[in-house]
Please model this.
Amino acid sequence: MDNRISFSSDYTKGAHPRILERLYETNYQQQNGYGTDEYCESAANKIKAACECPDADVFFLVGGTQTNQTIIDMLLKPYEGVVAAETGHVAAHEAGAIEFSGHKVLTLPSTLEPSEGGAAVYSDEIGKIKADELKALIQRFYADDNHEHMVFPGAVYISHPTEYGTLYSKAELEAISGVCKEFGIPLFLDGARLGYGHMSKRTDVTIKDIARLVDVFYIGGTKVGALFGEAVVFPKGVPTKHPVPIIKQHGALLAKGWLLGLQFDTLFTDELYFEISKNAIEMADILRNELIQRGYRIYIDSPTNQQFIVLEDDRLKELSEHVRYGFWEKPDDKHTVIRLATDWATTREDIEELMRYL
Amino acid sequence: MDNRISFSSDYTKGAHPRILERLYETNYQQQNGYGTDEYCESAANKIKAACECPDADVFFLVGGTQTNQTIIDMLLKPYEGVVAAETGHVAAHEAGAIEFSGHKVLTLPSTLEPSEGGAAVYSDEIGKIKADELKALIQRFYADDNHEHMVFPGAVYISHPTEYGTLYSKAELEAISGVCKEFGIPLFLDGARLGYGHMSKRTDVTIKDIARLVDVFYIGGTKVGALFGEAVVFPKGVPTKHPVPIIKQHGALLAKGWLLGLQFDTLFTDELYFEISKNAIEMADILRNELIQRGYRIYIDSPTNQQFIVLEDDRLKELSEHVRYGFWEKPDDKHTVIRLATDWATTREDIEELMRYL
Amino acid sequence: MDNRISFSSDYTKGAHPRILERLYETNYQQQNGYGTDEYCESAANKIKAACECPDADVFFLVGGTQTNQTIIDMLLKPYEGVVAAETGHVAAHEAGAIEFSGHKVLTLPSTLEPSEGGAAVYSDEIGKIKADELKALIQRFYADDNHEHMVFPGAVYISHPTEYGTLYSKAELEAISGVCKEFGIPLFLDGARLGYGHMSKRTDVTIKDIARLVDVFYIGGTKVGALFGEAVVFPKGVPTKHPVPIIKQHGALLAKGWLLGLQFDTLFTDELYFEISKNAIEMADILRNELIQRGYRIYIDSPTNQQFIVLEDDRLKELSEHVRYGFWEKPDDKHTVIRLATDWATTREDIEELMRYL
Amino acid sequence: MDNRISFSSDYTKGAHPRILERLYETNYQQQNGYGTDEYCESAANKIKAACECPDADVFFLVGGTQTNQTIIDMLLKPYEGVVAAETGHVAAHEAGAIEFSGHKVLTLPSTLEPSEGGAAVYSDEIGKIKADELKALIQRFYADDNHEHMVFPGAVYISHPTEYGTLYSKAELEAISGVCKEFGIPLFLDGARLGYGHMSKRTDVTIKDIARLVDVFYIGGTKVGALFGEAVVFPKGVPTKHPVPIIKQHGALLAKGWLLGLQFDTLFTDELYFEISKNAIEMADILRNELIQRGYRIYIDSPTNQQFIVLEDDRLKELSEHVRYGFWEKPDDKHTVIRLATDWATTREDIEELMRYL
Model:
């Protein structure tokens, strides 16, 4: 067994102990299958209250790629594609799950050139799309005489936090939402790490803003205190009469659906979801300050639980004897960018142990 | 909350307590993601030992429809379909998940006409395919001059126990396996309830026989003591160089894959899987004997944990005040067939409570 | 080169000479691509007039399987399948093209048991579905508690003439149309041989009846005097805002679309389509009467251009030295069912030559 | 009817008169269906001889998007995508036909920034991919620790001539072919305008070079003298045991397949294909020289039958009263790029008429 401390990702641990307790407590209660149980209902109600969207439809799916694939397939007509940042999870890291469902991912550029010499190599814009570029893409499409021979932009996918830990401001989100409304294109926000975005100290976007501004989003459980699970919220209702067979076709209908309901019911009781998200942010902030103080080169100026630094390869080799980290990329032959992620369970002791090796 | 006792299915409870204990014990151990952890490895090794197939490839997926869809997509070329009983889960109850993946289900008849007047309305043949009918289908296909305009039989799907609780004999399984080998068509056995088949008192088929006779099968966890999870076994190895992206495309790659490994590691330690399966069989046998003794009409002569009886509708209405059951079908206007399923956790007290209402 | 006379099918010759003439006449006229030309417009108008459906949308596609696949994909939601006779072309002879598009074919039985001893082994019911069986299938589906785990009946496919040359009566068609309307399910009629149905002496169904009773149908050109091409008619309009990209996704948007328009414009000028269809019917009737008179065993009582007879294998061997026929099936070891098809260009001399060998 | 002269594209006319003659001559010959006729065989043999690839498999499909979709689906495993220039037809102008088949298009940049001030605004590099960039993409993919979560580069698509009329040199083609061989990735060349590439005066690439360097290519008929049709050539054989059902699944199996065989048999008799291609090149060269001489701004330095110029919008308005052209793009508010395409049937008189309006 690998006993090194790990900051490699935010899905390396089990679940918040309150969730495990409730699994124990309810283990022999006999539940209805496929999400028709009381816990799913209760969790949905708590989520609708937290998001202030009483008319929402809420579903509970198992994992991120599955959720992205299922939602996008619900949103799109066969001749439509989904617009995403070229760094977006659906564009780059889902093994073609969107295309497997028959849809193209239409990409907008989002990888900024790193700035030279500064501490923050990338700005906090990386991983995001811009409202004006989205609008230009849509207008260019409709202006093309041959657009019926092209893939229609049928939905917009954004992640918040992004895959790089960055966040949209409320103004940015409103602008993107405005473009989507203007062209009647639904906006989908991937919130696999939504809690960490909501609790960032450098955000003005709340979960209620999101529910107001997008057509569908999900509240990530896998990376934020649940064993697994993503809560999908359609604030204005789901755009299909029969979501269940679509979910089942995607292999995404869990037989013991109450396991998902129970977890989200727990996370949305007494604001547990936000409280544990806050912990990750506080630990990340401590880590970040320590790193800057010690002269580490911050690669992306991330306001959330994922921190990215550039290390010389020799230095990294030493570090890897004690610490597990996330490999990110190699900007050149002698350096490596790594990700250090805190999570709902990271402790001050963990950070201190990590700093001993840094 | 619905406090009536439930015999409606075998996926109404959580998990064997040993699994919950291990979730607690390992909750803060930090694991590698996506099934690359030590528990998946350990579980795979124990399964390979139990099945006596040391060269097998083993994967852990989340649920049944997902597993069926992913395996069948791995087995088939684009122009091939999967042969199944017309009552098979993939043919009838997966919302078109196989067709969603681009493949046709080629069906063989399996719903026998009920025999008149006897206690056992259906024989124990229901839900199964027959080797000679399979062979005839394949031969008819290749004999047709136009078969290149038709869907090639590219894999064979059977379930054991079937959706009706029935079992193949070893001779039947060998015959089907023989036909598959003769035509070079892989045989896939859906073992969502495999433990209950293995432990039936009326079977001569063991899990080792299955590993010897089929090309791929899965060991059901969801219905046999796990929170969720199906262990897929390719005894002679997986027929694709890159199973991971295929699994991910189907939304079936669990981030915290070790949750699956841990559960199957637990179930395959000290033969727990078989022991708890045995409990379900024993409870079903007691139930079945009681039912026969009290003059209930057995609808299908099932040797496993699912029992099917025919009730008059008035009688059923009374029963439903105290007991949850599985609705099966309505053979006529005045009767209903119901399913009563025992599971790994059913107790003698549960049976006694049920019998009080019957 | 094979110089034997051929009655093997109705797609063995080129096109009516008037079509070839117009190809010559228009060869250097420069046309707009992709069906936006004047001939497509003119042909659509003539078809709408002939069918008395002025509000129709008309498209021209290239071949039958392509047309079936594209139309069905336009009609169905992802979780829906198409209901068809188990002998229907989409169910049996399109290499899985419907499943390739993600949809299941839900089948109704249509192969009747042959009657014993009579001249007509099969009745004229073969190949057809029945309104009451269709209704029962739909009702059974919605009555099932688990129907959200099953494939929804989302469209109905019939062929007229069927693959066996048989025809629906107007009453039958009205009944099927009524069931479809009752459940809000679109009805699609495959008219690959529509002209031969319309001109049969044993039908009361006209092309206008069809336009009135179905939601979409196509007028076959490939088998009725065109080089290739099928004219798709949606009498009440196409149910998608953007049919062009859907057609293109299916590889079905011909660059030189005017070749299709020109052919149908020719066929629907001066009732040429019906006139040449009539020829095939007259030749088939002569053939049929001769066959009966000579004591041949008629296998299916077909009122259209396809005739089916049962021959002893020895007799067939002799015949095949002089005549090409369509192999249909082997009812037993010593007999073969063959198809003899007339077409728009069959002459009395052809029939006489054939009869010399029979 | 629009009587303006048209240079809008190379698919505005019918077919070379020799093809129409042969349609007449063979109209009542009765042929076997689905490409099993003598003309397909003869055409395949002539193509194999012309390409010096005696072991090739040759198929005849109807149109370009259909052919691209079918070939790519034959080449790729489910988890693989096809690499193409971002301007490639499969990436940009097929309404998502590749994604409809379940595959991602992985793009390489190919739109160069226009150079300032010169006569040739774009170089002849536009529309092409580069061997070193292809290699870098593949290496980057395999170097990524997470590449099993990404889409594998499984085939490479190039067009020759490209959508912009540009051509690969033999050295460039050899370099791309070398990279493909190094990584075991099949190379597919879209030759919708292959004749015009082969006969360009500024190329060193012959059809034999192509047959030697790629794994599959097609010889375009639709744009080069046929009514329709693309001849697909797999020089080393087709990589699937059953191409026919795959072709049929894509709706691409023409019933009267001999219409395709007959056309290509005609085009590959007495080098007709190359002779008529030569005409288009000669006419384009005359046009190009005239344009340069008259001071028109050449937008892309194209060595084939498509010529691109930039016009002021006022000037274009006048022109459009007399001439049909292809709209290409608007580089700014006051200018438009148009395409003027010659073809197999363009005459010196056509050019002269065009020049009168320019």
Q: What stands out?
A: Residues 272-293 of chain C form the longest helix (22 residues). The CA atoms of residues 310 and 337 of chain C lie 4 Å apart.
